[in-house]
Amino acid sequence: MASVLKVDKLDPQSGTALEIGTSGDTVTVPSGATLDISSATLTPPATLPASSGVNLTALNATNLGSGTVAIARGGTGAATLAAAGLSNTPAFSSYLANNTSQAISDGVLTKVTLNTEWFDSDSTFDNSTNYRFTCPAGGAGQYLFCWQIFLYAANTSSNIEYVNTKLYKNGSAFIGTDMDYRDNEPRSVVIGNSVILDIADADYFELYGLVKQNSGSPSFYGGDRQTYFSGMRLIT
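The structure assignment produced for this chain is given below.
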């Protein structure tokens, strides 16, 4: 039969160290009992045993001194978002140079010469020859593309009847937006659109536009940078 020692306090016989049990022994605090160490200093072992963390609350993340938290656990898996692959790149934003115009043929779908850039994170947009975005190696994913064209008639005697913009993918028309203005025939129109696409490495995209007017030759206009094409990879 186990013996019971009933005392109100245990102190070491000498010094300040008190040892309970011997190596290999098991010291148990039974169910219903409370081990109150709230006013003491607890020195844990260098390696804690596996245990449920359900009761570990109010943890201060600023006290994490090393390591990373996996994305699946609400962390980034790295020290920065970019290092964890959580940046919206490749990303670009191109436009037709401010207050310049690009003359086009009436009723002919024409590529927009987007010859200026606000930014181009991975040098993926060609603004000097082909005027296109090309998905780089390793850049495949879901992308948000946005575009707009400022279209205007050639002179005061010309009026717009119909306009159209198309986003080309790999050399073919992919998505289009059009408006019919034969009821009022304005002299200028701004038209655009946006789309999210799942694209692969080496896919390329170009912006085209068309103006049909009652006379003369129309143009794309870059006034106030209203003719543009931009895109970025989304974090998914």
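Interim note for the steering committee: Residues 91-233 form a domain with the Jelly Rolls fold (CATH 2.60.120.40). The radius of gyration is 34 Å.
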